[in-house]
Design brief:
The structure holds 2 protein chains of 2 kinds. By secondary structure, chain A is mainly α. Chain A is 62% helix and 5% strand. In chain A, helix 11 (255-268) packs across helix 13 (294-318), helix 13 crosses helix 15 and helix 17 (396-404) runs antiparallel to helix 18. Chain B contains 11 helices and 10 strands. The chains are: A mainly alpha, B alpha/beta. The A-B interface holds A 252-253, 321, 323-334, 337, 341-342, 346, 442-444 and B 64, 66, 69, 71, 94-98, 101-104, 106, 108-111, 120-121, 124-125, 160, 171, 174-175, 177-178. Chain A: The chain crosses the membrane at residues 33-55, 226-247, 267-289, 295-317, 338-360, 415-436.
Chain lengths: 444, 265
């Protein structure tokens, strides 16, 4: 054996950092700064995003309403005077326009408003108004001949005037509103007949056409999204968990399970629009399911969510210590008993979290839904499930996409408003996931 | 602990409980156990000693078919309990494991209450027809594992909250709750401090009156203290098997001698 040479010990004081240590400390400090910088950039982006969405979207939750006394003239509504409901229904919404005009003129007169060059004062009231009065009359035919107080939406132009998007100057050039009409609106506001209030219709009412953007709401989209989430939950959770338990606990390791495993990982990375094409080809063209229906959307999103759920479920099953399985098998539990009595309860919180995150992902998915026709303009609520699963509906993110394509500025505001609603739902889901995990997490 | 080994060692009248003939175990390509034949007696503590990786734990896990859970493990040869081949296709490993209990190296209580830990085995095997019977089984098992006095006031407390030694005795209670005939212990004291070890060793000596106990241990002192029979494993071979006294005082094989004097391992 050769002698190991003595390494000369370097005389140094530990009170003084040497060059090497200083360099190392500087590197560590730099790394921390990079980290802080990254977090700062991320937070700034988040704040900017949220501010911009809130600034643009919050006005959608406010809407202008005008309160008018409408004379329900018998001559117009029921010329025969027999109160025959079929005759009354024979008068279409268009026939009610005269009443609205009358109502606006009455209001101008009683309030003593005088505006020079005012044409078509009824244009400040939404096109929705006539239909609203008609619905009331059909429900209460005995009120014909009296006059009734209604609260109408104003047109989006008047509403936008109060939100600062429309000015007197822009109204000069606008074919849909004139400065005189805006003056009328101001006069009515002074008289207390026109005010802004919280717009529940935005979250409950169905979409509306370009003719009356002020009436457009998210009701159908929220319902459609809820139906799809229900379908995804009912299909993806049991299928995903069953598949994961089988693959993780029971399946032999061989070539076939290897291939399945690789495929599941790959499926999780497949662009969602591919699932849309698949859904179109299989569920609509081959199986003949209806277009635009939540059932098809739900099935497509289930396919998309399955890999996410399987991967997270397998990860949480894997994280259960093998000693627990050994312990259960050691006292003579069967494999299934070991899994269902011991492993699954311990993996539960992780599975729940994975499922909720998968659902949240599905809730925000747009592309595959466009392909299966959920981008349609739907103004009728779908029925209650299960029949409602087959009725046309839209979904929240698709509604956002839809509204961003429309011209009227009221729709731009509504698109941002819909994003806020979507974000609120996502936040609720994520908070639920966190709470469930906290609540059921066990330590050992 | 009293040294009463001399009288306890008189075990010749006991019957053979487990018999193995030409057992070979393969982990994939790796030949882990090479042709092991031995007879384990009833109401006796049999110790398996040997250096790490010599296959003693593997062999122990063959005795209640815990190796079935490892896909790549393959077992040849014959292992019989009371003359019945445990690898017979008619044998359900679940029933076998109720008969051959196991205690693991690291205490592994279920993250449930102390009561539920012990009651789980009897419940799934239907050993108790009502709550009173179950209570009785739990109490008897905890008493046999010499932990009853420490936990009787907190049976609903989580089993994972006990100290390491208590957890291991709880695991022993859980194993004896299914009324096994054989108790396999895989290094039951390796994670315990000396005091807890002494308690568990004392317990093993008591368990011997009811069960055939097979214990894998790294500690030769432990083997000498608790066992009547000892088998020495080296590189997958069972080198020597005999009375514990003989193995430690008069080993026949040079490898055994080297190991117990600390020169290999």
């Amino acid at each position: 054996m050769t002698a190991i040479p003595d390494t000369p010990s370097r005389p140094s004081s530990i009170l003084e950092a040497d060059a090497r240590t200083r360099k190392r400390n500087a590197a560590e400090k730099r790394f921390r700064m990079y980290g802080l910088g990254a977090i700062f950039v991320g937070l700034t982006a988040l704040v900017l995003l949220l501010t911009s969405i809130l600034m643009q979207g919050l006005p959608a939750f406010q809407q202008s309403y005008v309160t008018l006394e409408v004379p329900l003239l018998e001559d117009t509504l029921d010329p025969s005077g027999e109160r025959n409901i079929d005759d009354i229904a024979g008068v279409i919404s268009f026939g009610y326009n005269g009443l609205i005009e009358q109502a606006v003129e009455d209001a101008i007169e009683t309030q003593g408003i005088e505006i020079e060059g005012l044409d078509d004062p009824a244009e400040i009231v939404s096109n929705q108004a006539a239909a609203q009065v008609r619905r009331f009359v059909l429900a209460n035919p005995e009120r014909i001949g009296t006059s009734e107080t209604f609260r109408f939406l104003t047109t989006s132009r008047v509403d936008q005037y109060y939100k600062g998007q429309v000015t007197m100057a822009s109204a000069e050039r606008d074919s849909q509103i004139s400065p005189q009409q805006l003056q009328l609106a101001e006069a009515l506001a002074e008289a207390g007949l026109l005010e802004q209030s919280f717009n529940w219709n935005f979250v409950t009412q169905p979409d509306a056409s370009d003719q009356r953007p002020e009436a457009a709401g998210l009701g159908v989209a929220i319902l459609g999204s809820a139906y799809m989430m229900l379908i995804v939950l009912c299909l993806a959770l049991p299928i995903g968990v069953a598949a994961s338990i089988y693959l993780e606990e029971f399946a032999p390791t061989n070539r076939i399970t290897d291939i399945i495993e690789v495929n599941i990982s790959n499926l999780a990375a497949v662009p969602s629009i591919v699932f849309g094409i698949l859904g179109l080809a299989i569920f609509i063209n081959f199986a003949g399911l209806p277009q635009s229906a939540p059932i098809v959307g739900g099935l497509v999103l289930t396919l998309m969510t399955l890999p996410t759920i399987i991967i997270s479920t397998r990860a949480s099953l894997k994280s259960v210590p093998p000693s627990i399985r050994d312990a259960a098998l050691g006292v003579g539990a069967s494999k299934m008993q070991a899994v269902f009595h011991h492993v699954l309860p311990l993996a539960g919180p992780g599975i729940l979290t994975g499922t909720i995150i998968g659902l949240a992902q599905a809730l925000g998915e747009t592309a595959p839904l466009l392909l299966i026709g959920m981008v349609a303009f739907v103004t009728e609520y779908p029925d209650a499930p299960p029949e409602g699963f087959f009725d046309p509906a839209t979904a929240l993110p698709v509604q956002v996409y839809n509204w961003t394509q429309r011209a009227d500025p009221a729709f731009a505001e509504r698109a941002s408003g819909a994003i806020i609603v979507l974000l609120v739902f996502l936040a609720i889901m994520n908070i639920t996931a966190i709470l469930l995990r906290r609540r059921f997490e066990r330590r050992w | 602990m009293k040294d009463v080994r001399a009288d306890e060692r008189d075990t010749t009248m006991n019957d053979v409980k487990i018999e193995t003939k030409g057992v070979q175990v393969y982990y994939g390509e790796n030949h882990a156990i090479k042709d092991v034949s031995l007879a384990i007696k009833d109401k006796t503590v049999t110790a398996f000693i040997g250096p790490s990786g010599c296959g003693k734990s593997t062999f122990l896990r063959c005795l209640n078919r815990m190796n079935d859970t490892i896909d790549i493990a393959r077992i040849e040869g014959e292992i019989s309990i009371d003359g019945e081949d445990i690898y017979d296709p008619r044998v359900d490993p679940v029933q076998l494991r109720a008969k051959v209990g196991m205690v693991f190296q690291k205490p592994n209580p279920f993250p449930k209450s102390i009561f539920d830990n012990v009651a789980y085995g009897p419940k799934i095997h239907g050993l108790a027809s009502n709550k009173a019977e179950l209570d009785e089984i739990v109490e008897t098992s905890l008493r046999r594992a010499a932990i009853w006095d420490e936990v009787k006031d907190r049976l609903q407390a989580p089993g994972t909250g006990l100290s390491g030694g208590q957890q291991q005795r709880l695991c022993i209670a859980r194993a004896v709750a299914t009324s096994p005939e054989v108790l396999l212990m895989d290094e039951p004291c390796s994670a315990l401090d000396p005091i807890a070890t002494a308690q568990v060793e004392e317990l093993i000596s008591e368990l011997r009156t009811r069960y055939s106990v097979v214990i894998v241990t790294h500690s030769m002192q432990q083997a000498a203290r608790v066992s009547q029979k000892t088998a020495f494993f080296h590189l997958g071979d069972m080198v020597e098997y005999g009375e514990t006294d003989d193995i430690f005082t008069n080993p026949q094989d040079p490898r055994t001698e080297k190991y117990i004097t600390g020169r290999i391992g």
